Amino acid sequence: MAGFDDLASERSKAQFDVEEMKVIWAGSRHTLEVSDRISRLVANDPVFRKDTRTMLSRKDLFKNTLRKAAHAWKRIIELRLSEEEAAELRFYVDEPAFMDLHWGMFIPTIKGQGTEEQQQKWLPLAYKMKIIGCYAQTELGHGSNVQGLETTATFDPQTDEFIIHSPTLTSSKWWPGGLGKVSTHAVVYGRLIIDSKDYGVNGFIVQLRSLDDHLPLPGITIGDIGMKFGSGAYNTMDNGVLRFDHVRIPRDQMLMRVSQVTREGKLVQSNVPWQLVYGTMVYVRQKIVSDASCALSRAVCIATRYSAVRRQFGLQSNGIETQVIDYKTQQSRLFPLLASAYAFRFVGEWLKWLYMDVNQRLQASDFSTLPEAHACTAGLKSLTTSATADGIEECRKLCGGHGYLCSSGLPELFAVYIPACTYEGDNIVLLLQVARFLIKTVSQLGSGKEPVGTTVYMGRVEQLMQCHCAVQKAEDWLKPSVILEAFEARSMRMSVASAQNLAKFDNQEEGFLELSADLVQAAVAHCQLIVVSKFIEKLQQDIPGKGVKGQLEALCNIYALFILHKHLGDFLSTGCITPKQASLANAQLRSLYSQVRPNAIALVDAFNYTDHYLSSVLGRYDGNVYPKLYEEAWKDPLNDSVVPDGYQEYIQPILKQQLRNARL
Ligand SMILES: CC/C=C\C/C=C\C/C=C\C/C=C\C/C=C\CCCC(=O)SCCNC(=O)CCNC(=O)[C@H](O)C(C)(C)COP(=O)(O)OP(=O)(O)OC[C@H]1O[C@@H](n2cnc3c(N)ncnc32)[C@H](O)[C@@H]1OP(=O)(O)O
Ligand SMILES: Cc1cc2nc3c(=O)[nH]c(=O)nc-3n(C[C@H](O)[C@H](O)[C@H](O)COP(=O)(O)OP(=O)(O)OC[C@H]3O[C@@H](n4cnc5c(N)ncnc54)[C@H](O)[C@@H]3O)c2cc1C
Fold this sequence. Notes:
Pfam families: ACOX, ACOX_C_alpha1, Acyl-CoA_ox_N
Helix content: 40-55%
Shape: globular
Mean pLDDT: 96
Radius of gyration: 27 Å
Low-confidence stretches: none
CATH architecture of the domain at 111-270: Beta Barrel
CATH topology of the domain at 111-270: Butyryl-CoA Dehydrogenase, subunit A, domain 2
Bound molecules: ligand LZZOIA2V, flavin-adenine dinucleotide
Number of strands: 11
Strand content: 5-15%
Domain Acyl-coenzyme A oxidase N-terminal: 17-132
Family: Belongs to the acyl-CoA oxidase family.
Domain Acyl-CoA oxidase C-terminal: 480-656
GO cellular component, one term: peroxisome
Structural class: alpha+beta
Largest sheet: 6 strands, mixed
Number of helices: 24
């Protein structure tokens, strides 16, 4: 049988220790053990089946999600899972649901923006799920522009309460996940008003629904905002609309870590920067970067396995056609995505460390790294989600016609993933934040304030503005120092050029708007440098296992040279490399594809995904694609009857020409 033999033979060709690569991918032996155990637990539980998801009506789909969420919670309690194991279980259930927002945003917001007392009051309730919360920031009229939110929270000194109100239609909360049908509570972002004075946006814990009968509390209008892109996909989530009509909450339900309102109605600022009100967004953006590597690797795993099973043209002497993975065009589309999945994994790992480091500093009242953390999380969220969304679609095309079938798993993966380019900050808006940070850094060069963190390279501005790439032969592109210098010089030169163009404007804000398309490109260049440099740093660590390091080096070089090839215009126009060096990079890339080819299947096996998680007939571990595709087709409800419903009303009259006769 084609698939079985092909994948078994591919696996036997691997030139590295797959089990050790699994550890590298997971992050540690412990993480691998946990994710392996929990993913199998989910895969073997019939309640967590997802094969009918794309065929259910919205109501049935949603109820099924509630059933799974309740079952997941039951299993977490029964098995006494740790926080880490519980998070893995929710991940492998693989169905967007209110739980994501409760654990992923509501709880972190209270932890990050609540005082000690507020945490003591609310966190135990949230941890035991006695209340379910969501994150209600975006409104009908404003999402990106957080300072433009219109919901008001007016302090009433008579009663020691805030009055939460939606003064306009556009102030209706719109989009929060989990809000539409499930959440009992929300962190609501609104304008703090004291004595008619507007003190800007702050977070407030507001109860939305009765804990007895789940009905909305007085003054609250609430519902779901309707069907979203794709079948199944993100429609398991109850993204909601919410309006307040003078709803009163006690004063101590304003999240008061950043600023406090006293009983007398005085606003007291603590020593933490006001931007901490945006702290949950930094946290979630960091999580989204790790998640990008999961979504991309999942699509790549499906496309790689299928490309080894699928054969088209080129009859060989043994009468067998060519595996499509052997076509150079297939490799040049697929392998950069494989390399990107690994690259995003490692930059995600680093970003997690950076976030933890910033948090520890914040506890010690050191706020110096917050701007860099904001820029890195914003930029990398943007870069990785855009590349992943495009990458999933490319994987669909790599699977030819069968990729368009829901049973390939790719259409639903695409539909569920693409909003990541928008939520938690529109990707262009976030890149503009990075650009601001870069322009600020460039403007401070020579002022005595040394660039830090990921902008340290900008301290070598003179060298980077003048350096010439030393590549003379294709293999020179394999040297990490050569790659790094080219990426640093490109980023430096693009940032400096943007800053110089900006300086020509009398009004900096106007200049920023005018040049924003170029500024976005400079931000992309900086973020790609971060990804490349973190991959190179990873390779400097001790990497055990036969051949593992060699494979990762090849993937790192593929990622870097693919980006170089894709953005050749930047590298050439800034004079970082010559056309000859560009063509040597291309030659090296081709050679790297050949190096990865025999290891491709093993490299996707190292993700350690179960067939349940992949939910793809094309990506099955055993490669048994054709019989299963055939089998799946017959499961479609349209095939329940041989003659379809509607035959008599709509097909028969055409065939019998009754419709034409009626018109004549
Ligand atoms: C299926 C699930 C898949 C993946 C998820 C995986 C894991 C996630 C885990 C859990 C989550 C669960 C599910 C996720 C699914 C969906 C969740 C989606 C949730 C949401 O979308 S919530 C809403 C998010 N909204 C936004 O992101 C809005 C975007 N806008 C902004 O962030 C800002 O307003 C802005 C950055 C655009 C602001 O621009 P501005 O110019 O107006 O600036 P300000 O005046 O406001 O600020 C000036 C000053 O402050 C600095 N700044 C800005 N932001 C921050 C920040 N976050 N931290 C620190 N500093 C910040 C800025 O740089 C300026 O500094 P300066 O020095 O004065 O220049
Ligand atoms: C599936 C999903 C789940 C969500 N979940 C939540 C949630 O749980 N809680 C919550 O509060 N919100 C949630 N959101 C809302 C989400 O965070 C916002 O939609 C997002 O921040 C983008 O804001 P916007 O919709 O206002 O886009 P807009 O800002 O209106 O963007 C429209 C266009 O304008 C461009 N644009 C905007 N401003 C600028 C600028 N300054 N310069 C250049 N171009 C600009 C953008 O690039 C984009 O092309 C969710 C959204 C989705 C899709």
